[in-house]
Amino acid sequence: MSDAQDPAEELKTTPLDALNRELGGRMVPFAGYAMPVQFPAGIIAEHNQTREKASLFDVSHMGQLRLHGESAATALERLVPGNLEGLKPGRMRYSMLTTDAGTIIDDLMVTREVGGLFVVVNASRFDADLPHMEANIGSDVEIEVLGGRALVALQGPAASAALADLAPDAGAMPFMSSLALSIGGIDALVNRSGYTGEDGYEISVAGADAEGLVKKLLADERVEAAGLGARDTLRLEAGLCLYGQDIDDTTTPIEAGLNWTVPKRRREEGGFPGADIIIDQWENGAARKLVGIRPEGRAPARTGTEITLADGTPIGMVTSGAFGPTIGGPVAMGYVRFDAAETGTKLELQVRGKGNPAAVADLPFASHRYFKA
Amino acid sequence: MTTKYSEDHEWITVDGDVGTVGITDHAQSQLGDIVFVELPEVGSAVEAGTDAGVVESVKAASDLMTPVSGEITETNDALEAEPSLANSAPTGDGWFFKVKLSDTSELDGLMDEAAYKAFCAD
Questions:
Q1: ipTM strictly over 0.95?
Q2: What range does the domain containing A230 cover?
Q3: Which of A39, A237, A323 to mutate to test the interface with B (most CBs of B within 10 A)?
Q4: Do B35 and A323 touch (CB under 8 A)?
């Protein structure tokens, strides 16, 4: 996702805009939408709330699509390196659209449905994804843009208990599964997934029902509203890539450490854009790798910070960096030369003319706590 | 002692020719959770309206501007150890540095409290 914003352009709003403002959300431009970066509690409190109880995030800016057609999974496999044919209805998977150079057009979540796929893409990439899919998906698949729908993420260790009070079947859903549920009388598509490293759900509802659903969920004392600021620190601690920063159309899935998204059958059969390059890198390694980075002091390293070896040799760049509230210090991710990617490798981060000491660290910084049945 | 305010949202309270500088409540509220500060060196010379340090919130780094020129006489070690003091007590324990003013007339170009409140309301 990208923050780039032409100030003259009118910002789009989500179906939760009025409620976000009523809740005291500080609205900022994000990928063409007015989105809450934080609520009055603040980013650190919202982050900790998510790790300790549960938070509700408005992520309605993200693009929602439905690909209709019995052959939709096979057709979309021509555009992504993931295994979609092997996905059973009601199960979902993380994948990405790739270029002929093996780089990433966008990352996406794909849910297999009976007779098609439900797909969520980044808001900032929607205008690139849609024509790419329309031009290449083939005539057997019809792409429906689910405009006007809302998407909310309920995340945290109390998410399951809170949602199950309103929709009992939500509690036993496996991680990365999908169910159409009535949440206190509101029809919703519920996916057990998220972008925080915690257990939780992403819930798609009709725009007109969004405010009612959110009010029901916020009425639970375990649940508080949280903004995109906390979502960013949570995903960074969880080692999850952000499109536009950690991955983009100059980086490959292998460079980004997403080898697990290219399973054996796809490596053997190929048949997706950039397959030769991606398979070669999978087998032989890439020249650079996305790693976790722990600065030694308190100074955060931000996106764009140059990474050098201790002797000053430039070897890469920070792609995401912030203070990690759960870690209690600065955390970052960035690309380094392949021979400096080993955990523990000493680095320097060039911040304001100083070489701040840092080291390559294991990802995630904060352990994933996804639901296991 | 008088307190004046800059358009960069710093406050300065002057006692004799030494001013204590911090960021305003409005500034800390706009920045959000402050997690790191870099303060000027004691003994260094600073120039009004230029950066004298760095304030970093969870999301972003901002320059800390000095509202007056002079020599840094003291910095707040407690703030360096606990940057959130700038959120919880921006005009008290969360002060940033003390500066010996080289030109007290620079204070005339700063706002008083009423003018600053009006400035923030715009």
A1: no
A2: 17-60+148-237
A3: A323
A4: yes
